[in-house]
Amino acid sequence: xxxxxTAVLIALTLGILPIASQAADAxxxxxxxxxxxxxxxxxxxxxxxxxxxxxxxxxxxxDLSAGYGFNLGKDWVLNVGASYTLNDxxxxxxxxxxxxxxxxxxxxxxxxxxxxxxxxxxxxxWLGFVSLSYHNAEGEYRDSQLGTGTVDTNGFGYGxxxxxxxxxxxxxxxxxxxIDFSRETVNLSSGEPEVTQFALRLNYRF
Length: 206
Prior knowledge:
Blueprint: H1 3-25, E1 30-48, E2 54-71, E3 76-85, E4 89-97, E5 101-123, E6 126-143, E7 147-165, E8 170-181, E9 184-186, E10 189-205
Antiparallel strand pairs: 1-2, 1-10, 2-3, 3-5, 4-5, 5-6, 6-7, 7-8, 8-10, 9-10
């Protein structure tokens, strides 16, 4: 190999190595596990027999999550993940009259989600991201006249967030998300749950 070709090869290697090293060691990439605590505002709009009525409640949700972050370039990252809510969350009570005063209460349980989060590193330790997610949960209702039952519901969420890498392994962040669930029919009424959540996130990145 000529000296000129050798010099060019060395120069290219020296130029590529720092970029490759930066991609491999970039914050917000690689496998992660995490926990999240959220303040949630839950609402249900009813139709059918309960048309015109709605119920709402505020609650706290605790989630565990796992995911993986892909480095898409110098400043772009794509995180994909899944989460599971450890506790049930309440949706309040609605009243109606039928042979006396009756009530319907609702809660969400066994709530899990899959998400993608494209993000931009506007500084080495800071990431702004958009969250798009699919959600599935079990809605449990209690009707004082008709008894208790459950219904499966699914929906889609969208939100914005901000993460800070304290170091290569520990990340903290905040996220604001809206989740719109499908309308489900039970007996003579149907309900459409909606969740607004503000979350504090803690991740450990391997």
